[in-house]
Amino acid sequence: MSRVVVTGRIPETAIEKLRAEHDVHAWTGSESIGREELLHRVAGADAVVSLLTERIDAELLDAAGPQLKVVANVAVGYDNIDVPACTERGIVATNTPGVLTEATADIAMGLVLMATRRLGEGERLIRSRQAWKWGMFFLLGSSLQGKTLGVVGMGGIGQATARRAKAFGMDIVYQSRSELDPVIAAELGARRVDLDELLTVSDVVSLHCPYGPATHHLIGAEQLAAMKSSAFLVNTARGPIVDETALASALREGVIAGAGLDVFEREPQVHPALLDLENVVLVPHLGSATVETRTAMAMLAADNALAVLSGEQPPAPIN
Ligand code: GLV
Ligand code: GLV
């Protein structure tokens, strides 16, 4: 029996799976676990199953102790984990790729539709109880048919978003570290370009790259200025990929037409300037938030932890 510490609430099926073999200590508070409490609880853990709201750094790994073998993040993104610090200590870090790809692409496409068709504005108008009626020029948005989607980061989620956009009649360009599999590229009709060209030609730019030093403020004032004034920006990846202050100015001054954001620079805070703008859709980090997807993520994280604890290769290692 190993000690498994789970840093927040996860679906019960995953807890049961872990509990069948190990001694499981799961934080069950409705609020995120506090840092001091977390440092105290991880002491003696052989496995830590972590949520993206918890920072897994050298201090935490040391508080756990030298017996710690695995950190299993219940997320595909792992910017909350200091992976080199895990590697140095011989700790395996894992994530949950694949299982949340379709759910996150759904939210990306949802934000594209909401932003281009002004659905948030329409909803707010009705709920404000103001009078409204159908009009030839009332709340006109932009069509997607024949427009170009620029996908920044063509991993699983970028590809799944491109597939949806293609079904809406959009052409696809993408920027990625590696060339797409030619069969998939042909199926999507996707053309690889550099970021400068992508920003210039796209009517909608959707971000799907990981967050790290290389992508911090990848989209700032200069990049927004390079976009068409009729274009939209959608971010379902990580908040700090976008300079939120620059985005708020660009939206206010008409440098771009609109945006849809599922992630923010300083979650759960949202830049106050964004809250005052009509042309940005704001949703609270819901990319993977379906019952099915969260269950699959928790089960994959449990499988990752269980594999390492029994000396096997986990399904989704990071390091
Ligand atoms: C969610 O944001 C994830 O990275 O899984
Ligand atoms: C998600 O699974 C991705 O690799 O983009």
* Shape type: globular
CATH class assignment of the largest domain: Alpha Beta
Fraction of residues in β-strands: 5-15%
Low-confidence stretches: none
Ligands and ions found: glyoxylic acid
CATH fold label of the largest domain: Rossmann fold
CATH architecture of the largest domain: 3-Layer(aba) Sandwich
The named CATH superfamily of the largest domain: NAD(P)-binding Rossmann-like Domain
H/I helix tally: 13
Mean pLDDT: 97
Order of helices and strands: EHEHEHEHEHHEHEHEHEHEHEHEH
Radius of gyration: 21 Å
Number of domains: 2
Give the fraction of residues assigned to helices: 25-40%
Strand order of the largest sheet: 8-7-6-9-10-11-12
Largest sheet: 7 strands, parallel
| Class from helix and strand fractions | alpha/beta
Query: What is the first-to-last residue Cα distance?
Result: 25 Å
Question: Using DSSP, what is the number of strands?
Answer: 12
